[in-house]
Hints:
Layout: E1 3-7, H1 16-19, H2 22-27, E2 33-36, H3 39-48, E3 59-62, H4 69-75, H5 77-80, E4 85-88, H6 100-109, E5 113-116, H7 122-130, E6 137-142, H8 147-164, E7 167-171, H9 177-187, E8 193-198, E9 206-211, H10 212-217, E10 227-232
Parallel strand pairs: 1-4, 1-5, 2-3, 2-4, 6-7
Antiparallel strand pairs: 7-10, 8-9, 8-10
Domain Tetrapyrrole methylase: 76-214
Keywords: Cytoplasm, Membrane, Methyltransferase, rRNA processing, S-adenosyl-L-methionine, Transferase, Transmembrane, Transmembrane helix
Organism: Fulvitalea axinellae
Amino acid sequence: MGTVYMIPNVIAGGTADQVIAPQVREILPKLKYFLVEDVRTARRYISSLKLGIRIEDLVFEKVDKKTGPAEIGHLMRPVLEGKDVGVISESGCPGVADPGAAVAAFAHGKGIKVVPMVGPSSLLLALMASGFNGQSFAFIGYLPIDKAQRRKRIIAVEKKSEEENQTQIFIETPYRNEALLGALLRNLKPSTKLCIARDVTGEEEFVVTKSVGEWKKSAPELKKVPTVFLVQGQFNKKKG
């Protein structure tokens, strides 16, 4: 059987030289078969690394959130027959908030080796810079779009952080960044800490932690740029 290589992509344009590890550059020329979230993005990414790879010699198959187990099984047949495969996300690390996780899960079920490769993760980088609890944290994905449900979820997230001293991490579709920030500032307690990590590793990188009360005085302009939000409530340690 072949091997599944989980290959990180950049999370900000023009940063490959700074954030893509030599390990990735060494393995890519050896691969001919790829399962990717977006074919065009993957082709452009590999070309941008300037490794002398002929893109036309490569085979790309799409694996996104709509790809079911049966199709993944079909796409993994070459790997079962001995061919190595590279899994590439549209942005960042495959398998982390990414459809590539289903490929890794299938591989483990068949006894196929899965190799994670070093690369940028906006979630981990934001946590590193936030000053929040890095021993207990949770990535909860996207908050509800419906205003009432979103408010309810924000309050629940804050409560969990307070009770368990756990950092809560979430993201939003860039064009809804401003709406989410507004909801956070309206519904979180003034004393709760909020870290805003915008364009991590990019030219306009902005990672700042303040209390919600402080953010209300000077909220940043997030624009339509990928942003990670982290919440740390005041820990209410229960006395036994």
